[in-house]
Amino acid sequence: MEILEIKNDIKKKDELLNAKYIEIQEKNDQAKSKDDQNRELTNRLKIISQNLSNANEKLSKSDETNFCPYTGSGTFHIQIPKSFEAPCNGSGWMVIQRRMDGSVDFDRTWNEYKEGFGNLTGEFFIGLEKLHLLTHARPHELKILMGDIHGDTAVAHYDDFKIGNEEKLYALEVLGKFSGDAGDSLKYHKNMKFSTFDKDNYGKCGRYYAAGWWFNHCSESSLNGNFKRNGQLMGIRGIFWSSWKKSKVSLTFVQMMIKPKDNVMKKSV
């Protein structure tokens, strides 16, 4: 009787051990299955990441262009041949300068005007060297939008525009036929060399006007002058276009833009 009880006890323990073994085996299988799932998920994530990387690479290449497109606005990579970023307005125009809130100081050095400065989504100047390369690669036209503190606006358009190289001190070499309602306050500056306070190529105009511009005795326009939040021109240090708002008005908005001339664009398409 005692032996039978021992056998039964051993049998029960064996059954418990088997049950525990089966339970452990099931947990191991579950853990293995989770590991397999994790590995599969990791592989999928790697594939998705690679696909995203490839898509981003294609996207970054897709916005590389030699000029602003006629569809799609935003910041594009322009090749001249060195790549740089520039804002495009969606109508083929590249914005090369903008004044709007006084957040950027435009009384800058020669090298800063050469390379460009500011914030492409706010106030900025694209850079004289880029302007030279762009306007010498193909003929361009120039459009200037202006506004004052009262909400009045005007436009100046020139059907040709070209800037010389640094050896020629980025002179305003070509300025075509004018049109628009702002009057022509840039013709007076044609053929003039660019000046800044530290490289003044005409008297001391760059220092007097606290701006970089194509000065000439000294100026009938100065779109890179000091920003006046009250819109009042005090003395000569301000943003002005003398053929429009001649009196004591300092412009509170300016946007200079260039675009390859239409006949050149048609030939390149």
Automatic annotation (TrEMBL):
Residues 59-262 form the Fibrinogen C-terminal domain. Residues 24-58 form a coiled coil. PROSITE patterns: FIBRINOGEN_C_1, FIBRINOGEN_C_2. It comes from the Eukaryota. GO terms for cellular component: extracellular space. CDD domains: FReD. InterPro entries: Fibrinogen-like_C, Fibrinogen_a/b/g_C_1, Fibrinogen_a/b/g_C_dom, Fibrinogen_C-term_domain, Fibrinogen_CS. The keyword Disulfide bond applies. Keywords: Coiled coil, Disulfide bond. This is Fibrinogen C-terminal domain-containing protein. It comes from Drosophila ananassae.
